[in-house]
Structure formats: structure tokens, C-alpha cells
Amino acid sequence: MIGFLFSAVAVLILCGIAVAGVWALDLKVLFGVIIPYAAIITFFAGLVYRVLDWARSPVPFAIPTTCGQEKSLSWIKPNKVDNPTTSGWVILRMAFEVLTFRSLFRNMKLDYREGPKIRYSSEKFLWLFAIMFHYAFLVVLIRHARFFLEPIPGALVVLEHLDGFMEVNLPFLGLGLPAMQLSGLLLLGGVSLLLLRRIVIPQVRYITLASDWFPLFLIIGIALTGALTRYVVRVDVVSIKEMAMGLATFHPVVPDGISVWFYVHLFLVCVLFAYFPFSKLMHLGGVFLSPTRNLPNNTRERRHINPWNYPVKTHDYHEYEDDFREKMIEAGLPVEKEMSEPEPEAPVAEGAEEEDK
Amino acid sequence: MAAKTPSPEVVGQVDHHPPRKGWMDTKPEFKPGNYLYAAQPQNLEGVGLANPRTWNPLDDDWQLPADWKGTVREGIAERLQRYRSFKLFMDICVRCGACADKCHFFIGSGDPKNMPVLRAELLRSVYRGELKTAGKILGKMAGGRKLTEDVIKEWFYYFFQCTECRRCSVFCPYGIDTAEITIMARELLNLLGCNIDWIAGPVNNCFHNGNHLGLQPHTFKENVEYLLDDIEEYVGVKIEPTFNRKGAEILFITPSGDVFAEPGIFTFMGYLMLFEHIGLDYTWSTYASEGGNFGFFTSHEMMKRLNAKMYHEAKRLGVKWILGGECGHMWRVVHQYMDTMNGPADFLEMPINPVTGTVFNNASATKMVHITEFTADLIKNDKLNLDPSQNDHLTVTFHDSCNTSRGMGLLEEPRYVMNKVCNNFVDMAPQVTRENTFCCGSGSGLNAGEYLEMRMRGGLPRANGVKRVHEDKGANMLACVCAIDRAVLTPLMEYWVPDVDCCGVSELVGNALVMEGQGEREYNLRGEENPSYVPPPEPEEPEGEGEAEAGEEGAE
Ligand code: SF4
Ligand code: SF4
User: How far from chain centre, in Å, is Cα A87?
Assistant: First the structure.
């Protein structure tokens, strides 16, 4: 629980820093230009560094986790997705994993009762929340491209239309709000449910570290300040676009009249980007590199090479025979070398051995 | 020996709620029945492992080597550089908890550190606290902690409370395989001389004598001969296999446990009968008389050292290819490691079934075929004379071994064979079979007598699956394709589901085989009267007598 408080407070402090910096100290260039650039550079450099760093360690053994029938006899149907033997099928397996969270979809819950009577029921909530959150995040991210592109590409406009499904309903309420975004709603919903799950399920709460709470609070902070700027404070979109275009074209400008709430939003986003490469959020890159998923299960068909395979001390047959020669001969087991002493040896065994040869 | 194991009623009461205290502040309690005996010094010395000494996990002072912290730190760093799996798995876990209730040891013990994610965190926290800047500075807030002797004790306790079954890996969205982390942790513990004797002993035996049991060549042969006598008595067929024979077409290797103890020996008899039935040109080796590999439970290096025997012997004997018996972790090693470590097997030939002509393309590099693949091929091509009604008193269900399921994918072959050699086969629920299968609870070298309580706990989910199919569908025989399973599922069933017995698939094959020149099959391979045996029709004066005599002759 200390981690929980620590993270929540940390995010509040971050908001405070932005408010103080922009509002009280008027450090708009710092918060509007320098920090965003620094964050983006950290993000990309860090991402590349981390992935390369992982990739630097070799994969000495092919250890896919097989989740279906192997390819063996021609008349037994293999499960090509969950037990792939070719790169093509591996790519499909990975695609399912990355795009549909297939492994999470398998999830089932333990139901342990007196007896003991143990059952497992399907449990799709984690999968659902995760899918909700990740796809919503993706859409929100793409939608933000409207600030950096001029003219706004048609595809983006279409996406915005699809996303803004609640547009029609709201005027009834007479609030005159801009179109509600489905993606934003799902993002906030997804991340809140993921947080709730961590609080409510005792085992999950028990394993949660500060570094798990923190990104959740951070993203909630981002979503809330984002919603605030869009629906409540009604920031000046034109100025923001001017600023964004400036950043994108490397001619940064800091227009006046942008709400401090926007700076808070921006600052939290910057923190997220800068924090990303050093955190568990790197699962984004890691999922592609996981040797239990991204290798074909064809190790008896094709030799996998271990780049650092070194010679080891073994106990070879000759050492073994030296240890046991006499007993082996007595037992009628064939040997490579006869006993050194010119002793008459078990004649029956010898005969049997000759026959074998 | 260990303390008495509490009754199933007591053991079955498991509370899965974590305690109030955070996991970094709790320590394991070493109690009889829940920890394993320390490795004897001579077993470490025999294979040159570090820090041989006499010690006991209950001791306060574990006599760790000087600068053990440096050893562990360097050990971690070295493994991070060598294994992408390890490095990645240290970094990308999001602690979503999907794996938490998938581990049989968590289900059976309720101990939160048996949740795969926390098991991994035991090592991950040290990785952060000792090797990562953020963890070094922020400590607990960054999930880091320092190396202490208590951490080593905790590692010993929990990394020898993981059977490397990979069930957690199936459910993890990034495929994080806690077995892989356990493998690394055990390597680190071995650098300090903290192995368990049930692993170190077999390793030392296997290295010097060729098999885990330490059977010397003549004893191995004698043991097989006992089984041949039994076959002669119960089946009425005399079989004379060869040992260490050069020029045989095939080398057969299987775990040594099956030549020694019930019910594995009945599976062994099944092999002997099958090969006789089809007239296979094969040989046994007393040097490579172990299919299993407890080196795998020690370190990658030790796995390679022990596994080297297989190719070494195949080459010396000049066989064309290798056939492997029923075993779980042996097949993980053969399938995923052997060729990489000790190959290429270019001195062997493409495995072809000499009876059916089937080319085993799936083993074209390793040149080693699984007995169940082999048997399934024989049956499919109608090469076996089978009488499945010999198994009619059995309703057979199947335990998928972790390693062959999640590290290979051998799922349908055994089912096909069982359906052909028995008339009553029923599967357990899909949540507990195939890739979802539950471990026997004693794998990866944990099948020691002193560990019985923990094994019964770890085996509970498996037993529960059997119990259900026993109650709902009348299953009374649990078949498997693993030697450790055969040895441990028997006591597990006695404990949780006493009406169900355990056997190997090849035992069922052996009982169903109609051997040329066989006698009356009144007895099964266990020497028990076979309830499914149907005596031949009442003798009609002259012919009847003749038949009976013929039967008796055959039995001689
Ligand atoms: S399922 Fe994977 S990511 Fe989730 S807690 Fe377990 S190991 Fe970590
Ligand atoms: S590998 Fe098996 S025993 Fe080990 S943590 Fe995972 S589920 Fe548990």
C-alpha cells in the first residue's frame, strides 16, 4: 500500500510541478519546448537502446512454449498456430499474441472449494480491460496526430467520425460540448478498471509494486487532464495546434493564452514518454522478443545454433569401460579392450560377443 | 525419514489469501515435509561442483563460500549476457497476475510466493537491487532488495518448490516462463553449493555409472533379465535382447527408473515385448542407460555433460538412429536442447521405421524418435497384432506430462495408441489436459521421500482432475508417458484418489500385444490375474487337450 500512496502522490506532485512552473514561474519554453523535446528523444533513444540491449544477448536454445499438437506423423493434424514449425506460422502466432492478446484470452480462474473441489472457470476480464485500454490508447494517440499534421489526412477524419459516436446524442443535453470521444472514454474506463482490479483482487494487490501503480496513476492523470482541456476548460485549440506544428517542424513557438491545464497534460505525457524505456512499459518491445513465443518448434528437424556453446567435461565410454571392464566381461557384456592381464576369461561370454559382431 | 504427512483432509484446506505483511518481509519456514535435504559433499565432488560440505537447510549458517555475494552478482550478470530469455523475463513482467493461480504449488499450498510472478520476483528484486541503478538507489520503491543470506535461503526454498512445468508460461501475455527463471536461480544456487541431494546424487551417479540409480553395467543387465523372466512367466515368450551391441540399427534409451521400480518396470516390459513382436534390430546400452537428465535440474552445463552420452554411444555403436522411451524432462532435453548442445548428429541417418518404412522427418536433425510416435506409426500401419480386450477391466485416462506437452507438443500420439490398445479411454477436462495439464507435483528432481507433504500439495490439482474423471466416468487407471510420473503418481493417487492406479502407455501396449507363440494371457505384466482374460472355450475332448499342451509348451 505504500507503493500505492507513493505513486499517487508522485503523480500529484508532477501536476504541481507543471502548474508551478507554468503559472507561477512562467517557464513556458521549458514546459512547452525543452521538456517535450527531451522526452521524445529519451523515449526513442531509450526504446532503441533497450531493444538492442536485449537483442545483444543471444538465444542459445530454442525454447518455445508449445500450446498444441506438434508436427510429427503425417496423419496427425498439427496445431500450426500454437505449435508453429515455420516462420510463417510463428508470425501468425505472434500476430495473435500482439494484436489479440491471445494468451490472456486463455485465462481461467481458480475456484477452490471445500473438499477440496477444484474447478476453473473462464475469466476474460483482464483480457477485456487490457484490450480496451490498449486499443483506446492507440486510437487516442493516432487522433492526436491532428495537431501535428496539416492538412488533416482523410483517414484521420474518418477515424474521428467513427470515434465520436456520441456526437449526435449530446446536443439533447444542451451542454454544447464537443463530440465525446469513444476512445477517450474507453481509455479512462480501461485504465480505471485495471487499477480497480489491482486494488480489489487480493493476490494481485499483493504482487503489485510501486512501479505498477505509478504508470496507472500517470495515465489516469493524462486522461483526466486531457478530458479537462477538451470538455471543461475549453483550451484554445488553434494555439495548441500552432505550438504542436512548431514542435513538429522544428520551429518551436510558444503562443500565449494556452491554459495551464494543457501544460499539465503535456507535462504528464512527457513524463510518461521519458519514463517508458526504463520501466515495465517496455513490454511493448519485449513481447516481440520473447523466445518462448517467437521461435518455431522444429528443433528436432533443424539444429538451433548456440553461439557460445563451449566444450564440457564428460565421462566418455572408455573411462566408463575402464571403471567396469572386469564386471562387464563377467556379465557377458562386449568390451572394446580386453583385460590387460593374460587371464583366461569367461569363455561363454566371449563366444556370445563374437556372434554379435 | 520425514515427518508423517498430514491427512488429505488437513492438507486440502488451503487459504489462498495473502498475508498482511509484504512479501519482502516474510521468510519461509523450513519444516519437515516442505524442504529437501542438502546435497552430500561426495555427490558434488564427484562432478566438480562448487562448495562441497555437509550442511542442513535447518542450520543457521549455510557455510556459503567466501565472497558468495560477488559470485551471485557475477553469476546473474553472466547469465543476462548469455540468455535473452533471462534478460527479457527480468525486465518485462507487468505483474498482471494472469499466471498467479496457474501454479500447482500455489493452488496446493496457498503460499503467495508460489505464484509464478512472485517466484520470479524473488530473483528479479535482487537483479534490480544489486544490478540496476534505480533499484540500487530507490530500493524497495523500485522493487529492489539486497542480497542477504536470507535471500539465498528463500531462493533455495522456492526454486526447489517449482517443478519447471511451464504452465505459467502458457498464460503469460509475454510468454514469461518462470521455469526458465528457476533454471537460472538453481544455477546460481549451485555456484554456492546449495543443491539438493535428490538431484546431486542422481547427477553424480549418471555421470559415472551411466544412470541415475548408479546401476553398474552388470546390474543393469541383471535387472533387465529379471524382467525377461517375468515376461516369460506371464506371457510365455522368451526374449533375448542385446546390450552394447555394435552394428544394431537402433539404440534404445529410456529412464533407468523403469528398469528398477514398480510400476515403471511394467512399462519396460512393454518395450521389450513390442520390440520382440516386430523383430526390431536394436540394442540397449549400459553406458547410456539413462534417458532422464537430472543435470537439467542443476545447470545447462550439467545437462550437456550428462546428455553427451547419448550421441557418444550412438556413434560408438554405429547405430543408424536413436529411439527414446517414455519420459518427460528427457524429452524436453532431447527435443529442445540436445542437438544444439551436443550435435550435429551427422554420424546418424534419417530415422526410418524399419517395419513400416515411415520416414520420421520431424526428427531429421536430432535423429531421435519418441516411442509413442514410433508405436502410433506401427499401429496406424497395422503392424501390431493387438487384443485391446485384454485391457477391458480398465477405464484409462491420461496424464499429459508437462515437458512433452509444453516443450514439444506430444498430445495426440499417446491418445491414438491408447485408443487402439484399450477399449475404454476417457480424457480429463480440457482445463487440466494437453497444454493446460497440471504437473504431477514432483517433477524437476523434487520426487524425494522427505518432500512428501509438499508433493501431495503440488500434485493436488492433478489429482483433482483425475478424481473428477474417476467419479464421472469411472476412470480407474491413469496412464502417462513419463518415468517420474509413474513413480510419483502412484503415491499421489493413493493419497488423493485411492481407487485409481497408474501405468505407462507402453504397459498397456504390452498387455494388449498378441505375441507369437505366447501362452495363455491369464496374468498381466504385473503378474496379477487379468480380470479381462477370457479362457479359451471348454476343451472338447481330444483337440482341447492338445491346445492346452501347446499353450504350456509355449510358456516354457
Ligand atoms: S502473467 Fe506474465 S506478465 Fe503477468 S504477472 Fe505473470 S509473469 Fe508477469
Ligand atoms: S514453472 Fe510450473 S511450478 Fe514453476 S512457477 Fe511456473 S507453474 Fe509453478
Answer: 21
Domain ranges of chain A: 2-294
CA of B131 to the centre of ligand 1 (A): 22
Contact B305 A71 (CB under 8 A): no
Yes or no, beta carbons of B13 and A109 under 8 Å apart? no
Q: Among A77, A46, A65, which Cα is nearest to A281's?
A: A46
State the residue for C-alpha cell 524473488: B122
Nearest chain B residue to A280 by CA: give it.
B92
State which fold the B24-195 domain adopts: Fumarate Reductase Iron-sulfur Protein; Chain B, domain 2 (1.10.1060)
Strands (E), chain A: 108-113, 117-122
pLDDT in tens, B461-482: 999 999 999 999 999 999 999 9
The interface pTM score, or ipTM, of the predicted complex is: 0.93
Q: Which of B80, B218, B376 sits opposite A57 (nearest CB)?
A: B80
Rounded (10°) angle between helices B300-317 and B197-209? 30
Q: What is the pLDDT of residues B197-233, one digit of tens each?
A: 999 999 999 999 999 999 999 999 999 999 999 999 9
Q: Give the number of the ligand closest to the Cα of residue B441.
A: 2
The domain made up of B388-550 has a fold known as Rossmann fold (3.40.50)
Cell of residue B199, nine digits = 538431484
pTM for the full predicted model: 0.93
A5–B contact, CB cutoff 8 A: no
- Residue A20 at interface with chain B, using a CB cutoff of 8 Å: no
Residue B157 has pLDDT above 70, yes or no: yes
Cβ < 6 Å from ligand 1: which residues? B 93-99, 116-117, 172-174, 176
Chain A residues with CB inside 8 Å of B410's CB?
70, 72
All 3 cell numbers of residue B47? 562432478
**8 A C-beta contact, residue A291 and residue A90:** no
The predicted-structure confidence for B434-466, as pLDDT tens digits, reads as follows: 999 999 999 999 999 999 999 999 999 999 999
